[in-house]
Design a protein that fits this description.
7-stranded mixed beta sheet; 3-stranded mixed beta sheet; alpha/beta; about 15% strand; about 500 residues; 16 strands; single chain
Length: about 500
Amino acid sequence: MGTEFGISVNTGYKQISENGEFKGGTMESHELRDLDAAKRYILEGLWLQRAVKPTAATVRPTLEWAMEIASSGHPLPPVGFVADIGHIAFGADAEYRLKDPLHVPGWPPTLARTYEDHVLGKLYADWMFERAGDALRKYQGKDRVKGIAYVINQIRERVKFTGVLLPPAVIRGLLTSNPDDVLSSGWDGLMRDGPSEIQISLYEELVASARRTNEVLAKEDVDALEDKSALGDMGQYVALRQIRQTTARIESRLPVRPVKPLVGRKEVPTRVLDEDQYPVGGYTSISNRGSIESLLHSQLAYMEDESPDLFDIKFVRDELFYYSRDENQFLRRRRAFVFVLFPDLFAARFKDPELPHQRIVMLMSSILALFRRITEWLSTDAIRFEVLFVQDGGKKPLAEEATLMELLLREPIERGDGLVTWVPDKEAVVTHLNRLARLSQVHCLAAATEPFEMDMENAVVTEVIIDGARPEVGNGDGMVTGLEGEDAFDVWQETVLRVLQLWV
């Protein structure tokens, strides 16, 4: 019997779509109302795991993972598949991996081989799943169970295969039983009746779905695991996912290599500190940077008749060796990129028909896209990112957005290269920028809903006004202009590109 199934209100982990689409229609889940049939489904699955040999030690964790999925109201995939994902993610398969295949009574050998090749093989080869496993191993206690349930549910949604709806009381009863007795009962049932038709059908569907899928998890799924938003509030989880998906869409339209500076852009003088410069070795020292006159003669051996040759490739990759002198000075610039969000952006929590998400989501996605591109393009510089939220008379109208930015910039914050904080007013912003300008080259993006003046001599200020679906850009003098684009999303992408041309 099939039934449509959507999001449970109190899940503990998330899924985005209410109904997953499968083969041009709605994914239908099998429903097992008969307690004996549901128990048989669970017991058979314990013997169908392939990553780790079924033992008494594997029974309880597998049942806990299955219990978390079933109690949240989501379709339960084959229990053997649930066990394989959990053991591979936590690395247990490396220690307890099966040396010889386990022959399950009545289980089709061809189906067992195709499952190992196309399902388990994909899990082992998928680098996103490997990242998810690294994130899960940092979890403790009950969060581990919830994390595995989240991963399994996201894989089911992405790969687009169904599962079984059954009473959680069946699994709860097995959890209180002796693990050896549970395994023995499952094996006796397989010896007597063989595997159930629904078990074989679900595995065949799982293999077919895995063949059509490139990656079992999306980057947004792994990011949610790493910042633990997958286990938090549903509203926060959805907002972070929207921001990351929109950021990826913006980045896909940006050039891969650094853009050319905009003609006539503002430049500010900066101080060069002694600790920012350092010599590289003596006369006999070797470096992978230098002029062609300092090239080691041995590097000429890479020259070949064909073009491009190995010499060209090493030159592009900075892998050629040069002699270094004491007078060769290498400079590592200090650069600070500051994003200022004024309190009137509370009005940007508005969804325009032209945009896929709210204006404030588009702004935060643009900030994240700038962060990623600048980090990639200016990897040789000492970079610092700061997001300043301006208070409104002591109130914090953008408190939720500040929490989201802390999660999005988690890595630079943990390294000490990032900061998300509050400032009382615009004067405090100017004071902070002046203090940063004493040691770094400062670029500031200030966003509001109405034009304002914040022109500074020692910092490059870019003004972004968001009073509609299409943002406008200025230089901090209160004068803003709109950029051209086929639609509103193109204008947002052009805004990010313009900021990069002004800064990089």
